[in-house]
């Protein structure tokens, strides 16, 4: 018996186990949150009511106030481990180009998602970037939401108006995982080339896994402000380098997070035993690390299928001096036990940002925000 007399009736096949043999009758109102239906299963009539609550909405301020990079590290580390075992579904990102017109754009919308097998939630992320005309409106050029979905029911649980904050956190968390497996426990001097939003999350993440270090900053802009802010926030010494070369001479760990228009280090600037954690390149137009540095390194990718297209690995592959065979490991392989740092080799960790990290931060966000 149907609850809504105005509903149009139709018969559908319901998937059951391996067979498509069961039939039921649903209302078109099933597309809405609530409906009642009567299914016929092996001749038995089963009355079933289904109803999903509306997803919770978490605004930007709530997210920023309650989520820290430290919250995400363990979950992101586990997600990398699962990723390298093939236990994360990370579809290729989708892109919608918003052409400039009197009514719209210009701008870009990127849609990414991921599911770590066995997790309670999966995540779909919508990031709008490069809406430069917003500046004339007094608005930022970027915005975005994460939709966190119940993996058992497929029902959206939450919409997080994160405007990039959750992406920055999961990127910092990946930096922490890279540090954990490729740097000494103590005595690190960490250089930050590029001193913007990602650099701040990398510094916080580094402090979560290596609580004592000396920081050195270099950027085309904002290095003084970055050094002062991080020093106060983390209670660690930060200085500003005169040049990228000067920074390399002082540092055994180098985080690069520039906009990727130019390479920012040179091979003969680097000390033995240096770890470079590069995250600025996430598009095929960007490159921060020169091909000869990559070739000379023990090269570790977050996800080879991405770094070979939009990360640092793209450059040396195109130049014909490296192939995917030259990849030492994916970051998740280190999580799963492959040795990271073994001696004074040069290590480059190439972070392009994966759907596994998005899925991980989505799960963390749901656990934390749902309980406040
Ligand atoms: N890998 C990932 O998962 C991931 C995630 C988010 C953003 N990103 C990328 O990270 C990069 C940085 O993002 P952001 O939000 O911190 O940007 P931002 O604009 O806040 O900061 C970039 C900084 O780099 C500096 N810079 C640019 N070119 C430089 C150069 N040649 N030498 C020294 N400093 C230079 C700028 O002065 C600025 O301080 C972008 O390319 C962004 O697309 C990557």
UniProtKB/TrEMBL annotation:
The family database entries (Pfam families) matched by this protein are listed as: OCD_Mu_crystall (PF02423)
Q: InterPro entries recorded for this chain?
A: ODC_Mu_crystall
Q: Which GO terms describe its cellular component?
A: cytoplasm
- Source superkingdom: Eukaryota
Name it.
Ornithine cyclodeaminase
Classification from the root reads: Eukaryota, Sar, Stramenopiles, Ochrophyta, Bacillariophyta
């Amino acid at each position: 018996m149907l609850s809504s007399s105005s509903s149009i009736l139709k018969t559908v096949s319901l998937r059951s186990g391996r067979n498509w043999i069961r039939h039921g009758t649903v209302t078109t109102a099933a597309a809405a949150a609530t409906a009642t239906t009567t299914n016929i299963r092996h001749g038995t009539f089963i009355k079933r009511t289904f109803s999903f609550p509306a997803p919770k909405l978490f605004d930007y301020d709530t997210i920023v106030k309650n989520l820290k990079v430290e919250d995400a590290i363990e979950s992101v580390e586990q997600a990398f481990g699962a990723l390298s075992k093939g236990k994360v579904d990370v579809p290729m990102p989708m892109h919608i180009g918003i052409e400039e017109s009197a009514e719209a754009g210009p701008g870009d919308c990127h849609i990414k998602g991921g599911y770590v097998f066995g997790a309670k939630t999966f995540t779909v992320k919508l990031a709008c970037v490069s809406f430069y005309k917003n500046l004339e409106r007094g608005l930022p050029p970027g915005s975005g939401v994460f939709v966190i979905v119940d993996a058992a029911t497929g029902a959206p649980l939450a919409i997080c108006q994160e405007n990039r904050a959750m992406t920055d956190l999961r990127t910092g968390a990946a930096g922490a995982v890279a540090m954990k497996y490729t740097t000494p426990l103590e005595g690190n001097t960490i250089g930050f080339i590029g001193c913007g939003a990602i650099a701040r999350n990398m510094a916080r993440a580094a402090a979560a896994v290596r609580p004592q270090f000396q920081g050195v900053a270099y950027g085309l802009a904002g290095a003084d402000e970055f050094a002062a802010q991080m020093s106060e926030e983390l209670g660690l010494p930060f200085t500003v380098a005169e040049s990228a070369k000067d920074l390399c001479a002082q540092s055994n760990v180098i985080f690069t997070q520039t906009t990727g228009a130019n390479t920012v280090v040179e091979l003969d600037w680097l000390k033995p035993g240096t770890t470079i954690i590069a995250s600025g390149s996430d598009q095929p137009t960007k490159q921060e690390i020169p091909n000869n540095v990559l070739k000379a390194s023990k090269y570790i990718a977050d996800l080879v299928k991405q770094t070979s297209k939009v990360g640092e690995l793209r450059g040396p592959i195109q130049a014909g001096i490296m192939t995917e065979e030259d990849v030492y490991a994916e970051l998740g392989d280190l999580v799963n036990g492959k040795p990271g740092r073994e001696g004074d080799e040069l290590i480059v960790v190439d972070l392009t940002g994966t759907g596994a990290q998005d899925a991980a931060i989505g799960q963390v966000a749901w656990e934390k925000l749902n309980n406040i």
